[in-house]
Design brief:
By secondary structure, the chain is of the alpha+beta class. The chain contains 12 helices and 14 strands. The longest helix has 16 residues. The termini are far apart.
Length: 355
């Protein structure tokens, strides 16, 4: 059975991506033509876009990590086989909307969604399947090649944008009136021959930061990763000033120096208020980095107070709790006119009981 977008709590390649810091788990990319028409389903108010060429990535070392970010415990993609066989994915936010390209039919999608407890519905003649839990995205079938994933409200807004324009006169009028996110134009330049890309108007961002593990505050980010015939990475962080760019760059260099040899090869450069990151590795170098394992950390020595101390020669062993002399116990009564009174507690030892 083909894998869908299932969430894996422990991905075997998660450590690999983390070891490359920002790069590998960093960005989720879509290899596509320049600004394909199906991208326009994204909200014109989108502040972050993530693209994924799933056809290329699903057989790569990063497949499980991408599934983890997209799955039911990540962004909330339903665990449907037909989604797992898709070709490309575009995710936009802050109104989380995923546009998935592939091959979809009403019978197949309906059968798989119903088996997961989805409820079938229609909105403006569009087939919709409502997810049984709020943590899972609902599904709208826009065409045999495109489905949308999002909350019910987000799906209805996306359908409104598409169908309301379609009701007007002619394709030219629709193109003139339709509004697009300005990030789409930036993303188009990364969509060819890349596996994962991210464009965001700021960092941190709820969507972009999920794929970009960089602790930095910026007023823009754009970057891509390709794992075809090796590994290539390019990214640009836009800082709020030249001085802030220098600070971010120095912090990045320090972070990469503590990672794997491949991550230490990430070039960091500063150009005005922009910080550029780039990496190029051969297939041999990339494959070797996947075999790196963390160096075991020796267990710390016990503190001196817990270390055993040998008794001096001839010294008697310390008395046990039973052998230690017991202190006399008393019952103390307070609140009397004559003051507190202490009464010896009866001895409950076997000798006393025998007497």
């Amino acid at each position: 059975m083909a894998k869908g977008f299932y969430f894996y709590q422990h991905s075997p390649h998660r450590g690999v991506l983390g070891s490359l810091a920002l790069a590998l788990l960093t960005v989720n990319i879509v290899a596509a033509q320049s600004h394909p028409g199906w991208w326009t389903y994204a909200s014109p108010d989108a502040t972050a876009l993530v693209g994924i060429d799933w056809r290329s990535l699903r057989g790569s070392p990063f497949a499980d990590a991408v599934r983890e970010e997209l799955g039911v415990d990540g962004l909330g993609f339903p665990a449907l086989d037909c989604l797992g066989q898709s070709t490309q994915v575009l995710v936009s936010s802050p109104a989380l909307l995923a546009i998935v390209a592939g091959a979809f039919t009403v019978p197949t999608l309906g059968q798989q969604a119903s088996a997961k407890g989805f409820r079938v519905a229609t909105y403006k003649n569009v087939n919709v399947w409502i997810a049984p839990q709020s943590s899972v995205l609902s599904i709208a079938l826009m065409s045999p090649q495109i489905v949308l994933l999002g909350s019910r409200k987000t799906l209805e807004e996306a359908i409104d944008r598409a169908t309301d324009l379609a009701a007007q006169e002619g394709e030219t009028a629709r193109a003139a009136k339709r509004k697009y996110s300005p990030l789409l134009a930036k993303a188009a330049q990364f969509a060819r021959n890349t596996d994962i890309w991210v464009v965001s108007s700021r960092l941190p961002d709820p969507l972009a930061s999920r794929f970009i593990p960089l602790e930095a505050e910026t007023v823009g980010f754009e970057g891509w990763v390709s794992a075809q015939n090796g590994l290539r990475l390019e990214a640009v962080l836009v800082a709020s000033s030249k001085e802030e760019a220098l600070v971010i760059a120095e912090r990045m260099r320090g972070s990469f120096s503590n990672l794997t040899s491949l991550a230490r090869g990430i070039e960091v450069r500063v150009d005005g208020d922009q910080v550029g990151l780039s990496l190029s590795a051969t297939a041999e170098q990339f494959n070797a980095s996947l075999k790196n394992t963390p160096t075991p950390v020796a267990a710390p020595a016990p503190p001196p107070a817990l270390a055993s101390v040998a008794s001096p020669p001839g010294a008697a062993p310390p008395p046990t709790e039973e052998e230690k002399p017991k202190q006399p116990q008393v019952i103390r009564i307070v609140g009397l006119d004559q003051g507190p009174v202490e009464i010896p507690f009866p001895d409950s030892s076997p000798h006393q009981q025998q007497n």
